[in-house]
Amino acid sequence: MKSKLLLAVACIFSFSISFAQSVEISNLSTEWEEITSVDGISISAKIADCDFNIGYDEQRVLLQIKNSNSSNKIVQFDVNRYSNDQCLNCNSNGENHRIVRVQANQTISAECAREEYIEMQVYVKFVSRETPDALNKIELQNIIVTN
Fold this sequence. Notes:
Helix content is 7%, strand content 49%. The protein contains one helix and eleven strands; from the N terminus they run H-E-E-E-E-E-E-E-E-E-E-E. It has one helix at 2-12; strands at 15-18, 21-24, 33-38, 41-50, 58-67, 73-83, 86-87, 97-102, 107-109, 121-126, 137-146. Strands 1, 2, 6, 7, 8 and 11 form a six-stranded antiparallel sheet that branches. It is globular.
């Protein structure tokens, strides 16, 4: 009985949850800025105009995740996208859910030219065309950090 109780307590403390963190697109700069931190994981964001060789160039929010822990972590979160303060995907069936694995003492950063961390990029608008439903805010929600 005692071992089951210890196992239950260990499971409860093996992950951390954070509340929602809103990011106004107009407040982002082109340099990394920390937007939240949970259990030795910090999440930063910046805005970038992504120049693609094919198709239209896009403005995107890029995310960076830094693991300051001495163990590998899995970071899960939902990205809610807002246009004119109306959520475009709040009632989705998981399309906004992201899972990122970060090695111990590692920092991973999304970049326009790399598809490797596409789950850490959020489309905002087209750069050289009018975009009627351009995002004005994103919200990171249900941030969970596990081993």
